[in-house]
Write a structure and sequence with these properties.
The chain is α+β, with helices and mostly antiparallel strands. The chain is 53% helix and 21% strand. Strands 5-4-3-2-1-8-6-7 form an eight-stranded mixed beta sheet. The relative contact order is 0.14.
Length: 214
Amino acid sequence: MSALAIVLMILAAMVFVALAVAAAVLCSPVVLVVDSARAQVQVRWLFAIAYQRPLPGAEGETRLSIAGHTVPLRRRKPKRKRAKLAARRARRRKAARGRFFYRCLRNRAIRRRLFRQLGRLRRGVFRTVEMKRRRVRVSFPDPALTGMLYGITQFGWARWAGIEPNFTGENSVFLEIRLRPHRIVKPVFSFLTGLPYRAMFKEWRASSARAPAQ
């Protein structure tokens, strides 16, 4: 076997492995779990990446683990001398973005195209979302109201929503949502390719220009 044939076989094997890895990454679902009883949100992907953080207003730590190994998450604190300059630049960027969005919303052509694309993106994303598990445990202070709710849960829509009345005083929500990346590529690509970039760029240049000195 010649050296060229060996090189071609190695390249073909590398391409095959790259395609297999890409297919595994795109087809593996991203699992989002919201558990109010534990006051935390979890995101899992590829059976090896896990991210966890507390719900807003709840106490807890934010953790990221890859293949069972915890990755430290630290926020870099800016130096005191550069803090004022960074804050000033952040305010300028925020003001420029605000002017840009305002000008885009005032532009009728951009506004109509943007809302149409957002509607298509919303419908496309909703089609890719799969609600795997849902559980809503409800308990009212008045047992009579809880009993009435128990009667309502006998209907199909209530059982589909996962409503579970209880008399123990527990009120919690548990949701498990799965999203497959390969299904969301198409609506995101369609959204990005349908935006009026030329008109938006003109509005960005106009919003970024400084006001003339008086």
